Structures are given as C-alpha cells and as structure tokens.
Amino acid sequence: MKTLRTPLYMLVAAVTIPVLTTAVVLAGLAVTRQRESLEARSRAEVAELVEHVDSAFQRSIAALEALAASKSLDSGDYDAFREEAQRVATTQPHWAQLVLVDARTGTNLTSITANPAFLPKLIGASELKDMARSPAPQVAELASNPRLGSAPLIQIRIPVLREGLLRYVLWTGLRAEAITQVLGSGDWPRSWIATVTDRTGTVVARSRNHESWIGRPANAEIEQALRESGSAWLKGSTLEGSPAYLVADTGPLSGWSVQLAIPSREIDGPIRWGAALIIGGIAGSVAVAAFLAWLVMREIRERREREHMIQQSQRMELIGQMTSGVAHDFNNILGVLVGILETVARRVTSDAALTSLIASGIGAVERGRTLTQQLLAFARRQTLKPERIDVNDALTELNRLIPQSLDHSVQLQLDLRAVGAECLIDRSQFEAAILNLVVNARDAMPKGGTLTIRTEDAPVGGHGTVEGPAVAISVIDTGQGIPAEVIERVFDPFFTTKPPGKGTGLGLSQVYGFVKQSAGHIEISSRPGDGTTVRLWLPKAAAQEAVETLQPPPERRISGDERPWRPKLVEPAAAAAKGGSPTVLIVDDEIIIATSAALALNEAGYATVIATNGDQAQQALASEPRIDVLFTDLILPHGPNGLDLARIARERRPEIRIVIASGHITKAISRAGEIEDYATISKPYSGDQVVAAVNATLESGRTEKRAEAESLG
Predict the structure, then answer these.
(1) Strand order through the sheet with 243-250
(2) Is 119 helix (H, G, I), strand (E, B) or coil?
(3) I need a surface site. Which of 360, 509, 532, 543 has the fewest CB within 10 A?
(4) pLDDT higher for 504 or 289?
C-alpha cells in the first residue's frame, strides 16, 4: 500500500498544481489590474481637481491684473480706484477683502472691507522685497489672523509695476468656500475624501469636516512625498486616522496640492476577497483531491484486502485439501501398521520383550491416529454432531473448566452481550476450540494479564464470509502480541512459535477447521506489545437450521491392477466345521488393510471376501451367494464409493448389514439422514475394533428381527 501512495500523491499534485497555479496567476493579474485601474482613476480625479483649483485662482488673478492696469493708479486718484475696485469686486463673490498696498512704504492705501478700521498690515518688508525681485502673481499661504474676518482667507497678491518698478501690490483675501465648492464638483465616490493644502502643508479646504480641519496641518507623509516629487501614491491614513490609500498632485500655478484619500477597504477588500477565493479554491481543490485520493486509496485497500482474503481462503483451502489427502493416506498407513502389529501380537505370546515392543508400536499408532484427527479437523473433514446450543450458556458452563487452564496471574473476564446467541454447532468441538484459544492466550501472557471472552450480536454482512445474522465470540488477551510476519501463518498446520516440545502447531488449525466447517468465519488481529484478539463469527441457528456443515471431498481415484477379478471366499476351518459362518465382504483400496481386517474376522469365526474397489465389490455382491455384512471404506476407486455401494447392496440384499469406515465422514454420507442407517468406524482401526463393529451390527440386526417378530405375533 505504501508503494502506491507516492505515485497517487504525485498524480494528485500533477492535476491540482497547474490548476491552482493558473488560478493564482489569473487572480493576481485581476487584482493588479483592478488596483492599477483604481490608481489611474484616482490620479485623473486629482489632476482634474488641481486644474479646477488653479482655475479658481486664475479667475481672481485675472480680475486683479485688470485693476492693476487702472489709470487711476497712474494719477494717484485712490478714491477713483476704490470705486473701480468695488465694481470689480461685485463680480467676485468669494472675495472677502481687496487692499491696495504702497510698495515703497508698505501702507494700505485703500481697501474694500466690511470694517476697514480692523484691516491689519498684510504685507511686510520681506514680502515686498520678494515681489520686487520676482514681480509675478502669488497665491500665498492661508491667512489665519482672526482680525481678517470670521474665517481664514486665501491670500492672492498681484504686483503693480510702473515704469518697470514695483509701485503697488494688490492683495485680495479669497474665502476658502471657493475651493470647497471646487471639491464638491468632483465625480468620485462619496467615501473618498478630497483635501487642498497650501505650500506650507496647511489644510485650506476639505470635502468632509471642512470646518474641523481648515488651518490645521495635513498628513506629514504625503507632504514629504509632494516635496520630493510633486505627486504621490502611497498607503497611509486619513486625517481622522482611518486606513487609506493617498494620491496627491501639485498645481503649477499655485503650488498648492490636492489630495484624495481612498479607504483601504475599497482596494484591499477585493484583494482580500480575491485572496480568500484563491485560498478557498485551493483549500477546496486540495480537499476534493484529498477526498478522491482517499477514495482511491480506500478502494485499493479494500480490493487488496478482498484479494488477500480470497488468496488466503484459496491457500487455506488448498492446504486443507492437501492435508485431507495426507491424513487419508496416513490413516491407511496406520491401518496397515495396526493390522501387522496385531497379527504379530497374536502370533507372538511367549516373548515378553517383543510383546512390549509391539504394544509400544500400537501406542505410537494411536498417537498418529490422534494427529490425523487433528489434521482432519483443520481440513474440515472431521465428523461433527451439530446441535442447537446457546453460546452464552455454553461459555458459562465452560467457565468452570477454563480457570484450571490459567495461571493465578491471569484474570478471566466473561462479557456475554449477545442476545439470542443460539447456534447450530458441535458442542464438544466448540468447547475444544475455546479451550485452545484460552491456552494460546495464557502462553502469550507469561507475566500475567487479563483474558476476556466476549460475545456480541454481529451485524449482517459485517463478518467475512458469513451471511445473515451471527454471534461474534472474541477471545482477547493483553499479552505479547504477534508480529505482522507471523500473523499470516498462525492457522497453518504445524506452524508454531513455541519452543520444541511445547506445541504441535495444530491448535489454531483445529479452531480454524471447526469454524469453517460450521459455516463461520475467523479473524485474528494483533500488534506486538498490544495483545491479541481472535474473533469467531458463528451463524445463528435461525439462519443455519438447514445448513450442512461438511463439504464433500474431491473424488479420489487410485490406479490399480486392472486384470479380471473373481471374488474369493475365505472361510476359517472352525466355522466350516460348524456348517458355515457369517460372511463379511471387505472393500478397501489398500489390500494390506483389507487383509488385516480379514485376518481379524477369520480368527473371530467369520468368513470373508475381499474387494479393492467398487466394481469388484459389485461383482462379489452378484456372484457370492451369501454376504451378511458389507464392511467398506468410504472412498473407493473404480466404480461407486462406499455410500453408493451400501445403497446398491441394500437394494440387492435388503437383509445385509453395513459398516462404513473412513478417516472422515463427509457431506455425502450425512445428507438426508443416511448416516443413521449405517454403522461407522473411524480409520485407522484395530482388528478388535473391526470385529466389535461387525458383531455390533449383526446383533443390531438380530434385535430388529426379534422386535419385528414380536410385533407381528
């Protein structure tokens, strides 16, 4: 899975990065163009205002220059000049005062004012010298002397030359409302604030809060920028302190500046919104890409898990088939050994040492028989006797035995939560499976810990291959845990991590086989140091009543001697002397096993006929006049198997008694209740067991006949 993450992340990055980069670039270009457009517009507005302000000054200067050319000044008729000035002043509504100053003495020669008595000395010696050196109209700073009137006035000075010399200075005080009206003519948003300042940086007019700010200093930052370059565009604040972008320019005539303050939100707002949209787009794209990547990863992970489950199931099925075949063949070998050892034991009675060795050999065969049963349990070929049991009740009863398998340092907890926990299972095999898991959990906690056995109701479809409602049985320990490289093999036969002599490696294999044979599912989860959980899912009885718990083995064919065969009756002399004995037809593909069984039966007084496959057995049934018992292996080569042969024998000879031998009883023999119709014996078997099985089935037949006779009589 890790190997897929890097390519997947690279694919997501390859798709999203170009899109995001393009979005960022386009958004950046859009924001830049918007800012440039706004800056250009604001500069155009300021330039227009500067032109209007200079135009207002130019109108007053033109009127003053007309008065400066008056002939009354040539003759020194100041009264006539005053009358002429009054006529001109009526055309200039914003003039507050008009004064004629003598350039030689600096005295006021005439004035037009509401109260001439309060007229101050407006032009000093320094101003007169300046005018003499540079005889040009001047728009001076704002005059803020209170004696000039109710409000500060804008000073405009005009030199009056006679014969090339400065003779007079015409001075007018222009009301600031004239410039305020100019500011009101601008076509800009009402949120913008226009301000006009004189050469000293004093506020002369303002489009908002004019009365509060006139005569006060303007923004120092923008004044500095104006002194350096004559124009400015910078980020600062309004006179009230609000964040704003400031744009300013200086009039060529007056040298005064006009400033526009644009609230920062109008420029930064779109930028922020653009950035927010970009970030949101990036976040959304990343989220979508991450979600898609997560979906892909989940699909890949689930697909791999499904493939792994299928592969694991196929692997276990293959191992099970191999194990079943090995166990079957091993059973046959053990059967041969049992037959030989018992035959030798019957022949050797005087040699105590040899008799002891033979007993040891038979004991070893019995241990081998136990081993094959364990293998058959894993291969799901063991004989089960399913019954309807409540798992909670079974665990409660088993709780009396479990503590005997645990150390005192291990604490046992039963947590039985399942409701309606009835399952159709073999009680003894279920108990053996739980005890196996308990022993494994105990061995995983050498220093003690907690062992929890829990039952829960499992949801439909949430437990592997089990369909329908199920009961989940969990065996949880707090032990050492299982490494990842080991956990894949824990159910394999003969695989164990325990020291030699401490385990066969078949415990979990038996549990696995029992669960699978019971139509259930088993999983194990663990991490080193965090303990282990083994969880079994068993179908509830309501959904499993008709489920057959055993699977048919693959048909097994064994090549053998194909020469024509004739049945051969072997009858012991003792039986012949008595006028005949019961005859047993022995059918087994292993001739040594069949011969061993025949020897044991012959010594017990039975006549025997041996066949090594189904076809030979049918010939014997057709040609031999008397066969009382059919003793047949379940799996036979060439012709019908043991079950089919039993059915054929019953059809031909209704009175015949049947014993079926096998290392495992399969679905074929358990269907339709047929297993109840036959006696069975597990392989490998001893000669005594063969004789006992034949005796039992014959006695059962006699009992049935007596019962039938009594019912008729």
Answers:
(1) 203-206, 193-197, 257-263, 243-250, 231-237
(2) coil
(3) 360
(4) 289
